[in-house]
Design a protein that fits this description.
InterPro entries: Yip1_dom. By secondary structure, the chain is mostly helical. It is elongated. The chain has ten helices and no strands.
Length: 223
């Protein structure tokens, strides 16, 4: 599997054509790929909260200063930020470990979410309906997004930009993989329509999942 990573960045079409010939099972991909790369954003958050915590504390202070001037700011969000800042300034890292594990758990869910979306949409746009191929596209396409998660170690505009670019490239890889692996035709822009709907559905579903993750974070921090 490792041999495909660099090629996916440099020659994505060629890499997907080769991956289309593979028959990876979902357990294989989880054990040999997902569990390792999905850990990058989680451990990066932990390192950021512990080693580079001053960057996060500084950003939270700026947010709270802005929140004081904005009465429309949700009170629970403000309370969450205050609790997070207090936790970061504490020497006990127990809560940070819990946050890391929760983040890791939700990162492990991402390929399943993408797989369900891809599996549902692929036949509608002329592609094949194959759970293993759909999961292959989802898992390999998420690698750039997970790798970009290393920038969570520091809270800065550059970090957020790199995370955004990682997600953008993930969608680009799904766009290419849809044609090369799932046989979605490029005629009449079907592959383009496919990725547009994938993006929309993913944003909606991830928004709902994000709310659940946020509620768990609230419980961890006692908000």
């Amino acid at each position: 599997m490792v041999k495909y990573f660099l090629e996916l960045y440099l020659k994505p079409k060629t890499a997907w054509e080769k991956l289309a010939q593979e028959n990876f099972t979902i357990p294989q991909l989880y054990i040999r790929l997902v569990i390792f790369f999905a850990f990058i954003p989680a451990v990066s958050h932990f390192i950021g909260f512990t080693v580079f915590r001053e960057y996060y504390v500084s950003a939270i202070k700026k947010f709270l200063e802005m929140a004081e001037k904005d009465p429309e700011q949700p009170k629970r969000t403000v309370e969450y930020m205050k609790a997070l800042m207090a936790e970061l300034m504490d020497s006990d890292i127990t809560q940070e470990l819990f946050i890391m594990l929760v983040t890791y758990g939700f990162e492990l869910l991402k390929p399943l979410v993408f797989t369900v979306i891809i599996l549902f949409l692929s036949p509608a746009f002329g592609g094949i309906k194959d759970p293993q191929k759909s999961f292959t596209v989802a898992a390999f396409a998420l690698v750039p997004s997970w790798v970009a998660g290393v920038f969570y170690v520091m809270n800065s505009p550059i970090s957020m930009f790199m995370v955004f670019m990682g997600m953008f490239y993930t969608f680009y890889l799904i766009f290419i993989g849809g044609e090369k692996v799932l046989n979605i035709p490029s005629e009449k822009s079907k592959n383009f329509q496919f990725i547009i709907v994938v993006v929309i559905l993913y944003l909606v579903i991830s928004g709902v999942i994000g709310q659940v993750e946020t509620l768990i974070m609230y419980r961890i921090l006692g908000v």
